[in-house]
Every structure is written in structure tokens, then in C-alpha cells.
Amino acid sequence: MKNEVYQTIRTERNGGVATIFINNPPVNVLGTKLMKELKTVLQEYAGDDTVKVIVFESDNSEFFIAHVDINILDDQEAVEELTKDVYEGLNIFQTIGEIIRRQPQVTIVKLKGIARAGGAEFVAAADMSFASLETGKIGQTEALMGIIPGGGATQYLSEKMPRNRVLEVILGAELFDAKDAERYGWINRSVPDSEIDLFVDKLAQQIASLPDGVVATVKKVLPPANLQQGYQKENDGWLELVSKPKAAEIFSSIMKKGAQTPDVEKEIETLLRSL
Amino acid sequence: MKNEVYQTIRTERNGGVATIFINNPPVNVLGTKLMKELKTVLQEYAGDDTVKVIVFESDNSEFFIAHVDINILDDQEAVEELTKDVYEGLNIFQTIGEIIRRQPQVTIVKLKGIARAGGAEFVAAADMSFASLETGKIGQTEALMGIIPGGGATQYLSEKMPRNRVLEVILGAELFDAKDAERYGWINRSVPDSEIDLFVDKLAQQIASLPDGVVATVKKVLPPANLQQGYQKENDGWLELVSKPKAAEIFSSIMKKGAQTPDVEKEIETLLRSL
Amino acid sequence: MKNEVYQTIRTERNGGVATIFINNPPVNVLGTKLMKELKTVLQEYAGDDTVKVIVFESDNSEFFIAHVDINILDDQEAVEELTKDVYEGLNIFQTIGEIIRRQPQVTIVKLKGIARAGGAEFVAAADMSFASLETGKIGQTEALMGIIPGGGATQYLSEKMPRNRVLEVILGAELFDAKDAERYGWINRSVPDSEIDLFVDKLAQQIASLPDGVVATVKKVLPPANLQQGYQKENDGWLELVSKPKAAEIFSSIMKKGAQTPDVEKEIETLLRSL
């Protein structure tokens, strides 16, 4: 069983639909191990034309992906390993986004629980996203950490909503509930929690059942936009800020105060605004 | 009376507003005769500067336009006749869309009943569209037929909503009600059925009453986007799929099962998913 | 006190947030004096890096900005003074919009009362806008005056909503309430009147409190779009219409009937449609 090789994800197949469950306790931070396993499984699916649709969901009911592991840049070797031989010029976070965006299958996020920062970028990189009306939350929290989003959000958001709302999302740095996220076009739509499993599963199965060639042709006619220049600008801005002592100080401070544990993560904006 | 020459439409004039009623029983399929009459009347209006606004509506309360006539490609002569001397490089469906988009008048769709596939593209090609909250429905059904939209929808939708929603519309292939269509920006807005006639008629008359030059100048400053490249890509994708035996098999199968008759058309997604 | 030098605005500072109150009785028309004072204060803030956020609001509970002063073009000298040394090729209205758009600070409109025509363009030029659910109203009224918007709206609206809705806004020329404006993406969102002060003040203070460099970097990565060509086309169209006798006749007629006084301004669409 392939599943046995993964430690931070598990997968299920149901006909043409593969589901990747994110399972990286305690709060599903997006660290190098999770990234590596996601990259591996997505590359495997990319070569398997019996997989038509990939659904991402979380094994943790409170967190989809908390955010990128705050300590991620400590392991430069793993970071370099992840970005090499993929998309030239992209940082590791943009690389993950681009892998999702270029996946030949249709990718769908079923968002239950919280997705912040790099987790929110993961959601926005997928072809479609549906959020639980009651539990789905999404936020670009980076500004509170002294940085800007560095994994594509400046570009992904700009494709989904006008600039006035992008600025509100990034500079306001609030956690949006599913209804507001839908209203801003950040996700496809919110679905009552009692219906979202059925909704996403039905949609995924229906897409997987489409006659041969339809998905590939739609993706060819409507490819993801080329964001090369935008990624570059975003990375320049992100790199400048993340290199400042202030960012390191904030990271260190919130780690000491319990970041990356469930209770603190639920209200991390409050902690960050109190520093 | 000009009206007498048309068999699938009828027209009314009220001041500067011309209304074209689509009337092609039993379900208003968009066939070559209807296309030809639409092209003729629109070209006539294009040369008549007393017409300021053109409203499209249906004489059939259940169907605005069911979809393109499934047998349309059988009559190659009519197809060629329709596309020649119009917009080079566009297929017949894109040609109809482009005629609507380039109409000098303001074009408004009053959507009561169902508009699917080529009918949905017709709606999206118009300058504005308002749908009955209760009866207006719109869907890109093509994926279920083994093809992709080939009459501009890949482009028109991309102008109106972000790619995640375009993919949901095209690959999900569901019939949207007016409220959801409004939420996705597919139509201008939904209006209660009891108010939509008054709403559209008032708006049309008000636009027709604007001081000279305003409509023309607004259309000059805000022209429809040049979609030449997008149309080409869309047609390439559409043509590849429509040429496959699978598409022909689906078309033949649904015709045998009652497609293009009212009862079957009301729920044609169900029939198509059952094949 | 700097405030003493201004006659049509007053300013307040609260930490990193500067608020500019528009105060040009009786209905806050955007005339040359108000424009000049806005330009002066914005240029002053542009050079003051202790100001992080600029909030615009009105001292008049019924009008944010009624519209541009109808007599504005009578004072050519003041108009020329305002546009020289700013952005080459832009008319005076576009110049004001561009000053707002290029402001290094985050600009936020708190919209209570009515913003029409040039006032609506002011709202749309800001980085963000929040409107009172009960009193906030916005409209591009120009079409009823025989002209098109000439201060950027054709471009600003096109960034915020699809063309079908832009055409409805400009050609329908109706005053939108805050809920509809939100639905169309014209403003960031509507907020109940009882909460909007707290909402905007909190957001402004939070943005002003972000770690150093975040605002500047976000604005650098997500700059306002270059609208040079669009401005040119818009101005060409506007100039052609505003030079016609019809526009002058409408301006003169509504001034005689009480335009720029509160009672008439509340329902000026009705007056304009009755001419």
C-alpha cells in the first residue's frame, strides 16, 4: 500500500477521484515533510490517467492547514531539495502553489476548519474550493507577522477579486468566514457543513465521469494564467521583509507563546495584534 | 410588415426599444433558421439609428433557448452561408455571439425559462442580462455531451467570473438558478418574476431616452474585448471533441430519448448523466 | 494649526491614521477649491511617513460628495493650476483620481450619504471603500447629463466588475444602495450604520499598526494598474459630449431647477429624467 509511505497525508481512491487527506498534527502546519509528500503524491497522480479529480481535505476538523511551518527556513537543505527541478525562479511556497495549479487533474479543496497564510494560498491555488459554511475560515495573516504573502496569494487573489478587496484581505489580515469568502470570490462557494461532503463528492464524481477528453480540453483552453512576473515581484517583496529582524522577532515571539498548538492557533490574529 | 418574413422570431418596437421574441417551438433550439433570422434582424437594426436598445426575450415561458439544434451540423450549406462575410476565423456559434457583442445598440436579455449551452452563450454575449428569480435558469451543459462550449462561453465566462468558478460552471455542467448565476456574476442580476418585465422595460426605455451620443460613446470607450485568440483556442478544443465518435453517439442517443422536446429538456442533465 | 488654512475640508490625526472630513456646504460639490485643498493635504501627507492610513469621510450626513461642481469649467485658470505638474495628459477629474490612487498611504473611504458622478469616482479611486448599509449610496449619473463619466469611472469600474455590470451602472445611471454596490463589487462591503465608524476606525488603526514596511511592500507588489490608455479614451469620449450644446443646456437647466441644493440633489435622477 502506497499510503504506508506517507506520514503527513493519507490517500483514498474512489473510481476516478483521489482524495488526499492532510494529516500533520497538531494543526496541519505546512512543513517540508508535508510539502514533500504532497509533491510526491501529486507527481504520481500526474502520471496516472485513471485519476481524473483530486480532492484535498483535512483529517483535522479544526484546521485545514494552519499555515507554513514557522521554522521551515531553518532546514535549507529540505527547502532546496523541494524547489529544484520544478519551476525555475519560484520560491518554495510558490512552487507548491504552481504544482497544484499545473496538475493535469481537476483539483478541489473541501475546506473545513481554518486555512491561514500558506494554507490559504493552497486553497486559492486549487482549481475549485468549497468551504463549510459553519467551520470553513480563510485568512492571509502574513501582514501581522511583518511580511507579505509569499506563496502566490498576491497573484491568486488578484485573479479572484478586485484590488480594493485584495488590499483589505492582505492588510486587514482578518480570518474570513466562508460566507464572506464566497462573497469576495475567494472560494467558489460556501456549503452547509451537513451537505458539503455530499456536495463535493458528487461534483468530483460527476467530473470524473465526464466523457474522455473533456477535462483535458477544458484545462487546455482555460489554463492557469502565467504568473511568472507576479511571482517574481511577490517574492522580491516577501524576501525583503522576511529578512528583517522584525519578522524573526515575531516568529520567535509567537512560537514562545504557543503558536502551532491548537488553542493559540484558533485565535492567532489576537496574539499577533497584541505583540 | 417586416414581422411576416420571420418564422422563428417576432419583433416589437416601442419608441427606441426593439424587442426580439424568440419563438421556435417546441423548445427554442438555436438552429440555422433562427440564427439566420437573428442575423438578418440584427443587421437591419444595426443600420437603423432610431433603434437604441434591443431586448431579447422568449415567447416560450419555459425555454429562453434550449441549446443549439443538435442536428445543426447536418446542414453544412446553411452553416457556411451564416458564417461567410461576417467574422473571419469564427465558427458559426462564435459568429452569432460576435454579432450580438458588436451590435451598435445596447443589447439586453430578459431571461425567463431555461438557457443552456449555446443558449447560455447567447445570454452571456449580450451587453446585459436580467433573469427571473423564479424561472430563469442557465447552464453550460456541453461537458455532459462530451464536448466543451464552442460558442464563446470559455471566453465570456472568463470575463465575468474568476477561473475557479468558470471551471465549476463548465465541468460541473449544472443548471444554475438565477440567484446563483447572479452571485457568480454570470448575469447582471436576478429580479422577481412579478417585477422583471417592468424592470427591463423601464431600463430599456431609460437608456433609449438618454441624450444623443451617450450610448455610442460609452460603447466606444468600453468596447467588448477582442477575443480573437480565445475564440481560436476554444474552437480548436471544441472541434477536436465534437469530431470524436463519442459526441456523435451522445447526440444520437439523446435525440432518440426525446431531446428537443419540452419534458425531456427540462431535466436534460439527468438524461445526459444517465447515459 | 494646519486645519485653519482649509475651508472645504478639515483633518484629524489619531496615531498613524489621518482623517480628511469633506466639508463643502451645502452638498459637498467637488469644486476647484475642494480639489485644491485635497491635493494640498494629500501631497503633504505623501511626504509624512508618520501617516500610514488616510480615511475620507463627510461632515455632511446626507452627501459624501454630491458630484463635481457643475460650474467648474467656468474657472479655467483654477482648472489649469490643478492639473499642471501632476499627471501629464489627464483631465482635472482623472488627475484627482490619480492623486488618490498613487497616494503612498492606504486610502479608505467611509461612505455615508450620497456619492454621485465625480463623487462616485472619488470613492472608486480609493484603495478601499466601506458604505453605510442604510445611508451609503453611489451612482454614475453622468449619462443623464448627456455625458459619460470623465474622471476615471469607465476604468475604475472595469477593474471591479464585469462589463455587463459596468454598462448597467453607467447607462442605467441609477443610484445604487450600499447592498447592491457591494454585490457588484463597486465597494468593499456595506456595514450597518451603527457599526461603520467602529469598523473603519478599527481597520485603519490595525493597518497603521502593521510592522514597518508591510504597507509599502504590499502597495509595491500590488500597485494600481496603469490606466493611461483608458484615461485617454475616456477623456476623448467625455470631451466630445461635454462640448455639445446639449450638455450645457442640461447643466444650465438643472442649475435653474435647484441642482446643488440638498432637496433637489437627493433625487436628482428624477429631475434629470424629467427634462
From TrEMBL, chains A, B, C:
<dbReference type="GO" id="GO:0006635">
    <property type="term" value="P:fatty acid beta-oxidation"/>
</dbReference>
<protein>
    <submittedName>
        <fullName>Enoyl-CoA hydratase</fullName>
    </submittedName>
</protein>
<dbReference type="GO" id="GO:0003824">
    <property type="term" value="F:catalytic activity"/>
</dbReference>
<dbReference type="Pfam" id="PF00378">
    <property type="entry name" value="ECH_1"/>
</dbReference>
<dbReference type="InterPro" id="IPR029045">
    <property type="entry name" value="ClpP/crotonase-like_dom_sf"/>
</dbReference>
<dbReference type="InterPro" id="IPR001753">
    <property type="entry name" value="Enoyl-CoA_hydra/iso"/>
</dbReference>
